[in-house]
Amino acid sequence: MKLKKIIAAIAAAAVAVSTMAVNAFAAEEYQAVLGFADTAWAAQDWEAATTVTGDGQYTIESTLVAGAVDFGVFVVDITGMYAANPNATAVLDKVEVDGAEISFDAAGIQYGDIEEKGNYRIEIYNQYGLTKDNPPVNQATPVSTSIKVTFTVSGLGGGAAEAAPEATTEAPATGNAPIAAMAVVMALAGTAAVVSKKK
To answer: pLDDT tens, 136-145?
Structure first.
């Protein structure tokens, strides 16, 4: 009976160690959400998003903005990233309208906790914001089918960005498997030692 209790305790310890290892190395995740409306607020999208799981390049695409006659509000908010990681950054790489890349003045794009809500914002154009008087992009651009925004995140670590334009919902590999495996091996070794001693 005593042997069974020892084995059970070792197994429980192995599970606890594995869980702690996973939690300790789990990547932080943030939702990067598009905010878009034309000046008349006729075409809007505040839901298109992708999950940021580490450093790398990400893309958000929206077809809900089809029919927009121009840009009224055009931003990306990485929810909670500034509050949790004030040294992390995101830089706009590319803007595509109806499948074609459009130019923008990189120096004019605004970044940071612009609304002081703890979110990291990429402000491409905002008729109420910092870019109102000096638009870094042609805000009169109409949208027939879709817009697509590509940006690069740095300062989070992990290196688990999307490999394709589609948003990913899979958690990145974080090196947990070897640690968990080690815990299991240790547990089995302990069990073997106990059984051997008992014999």
So the answer is: 999 999 999 9
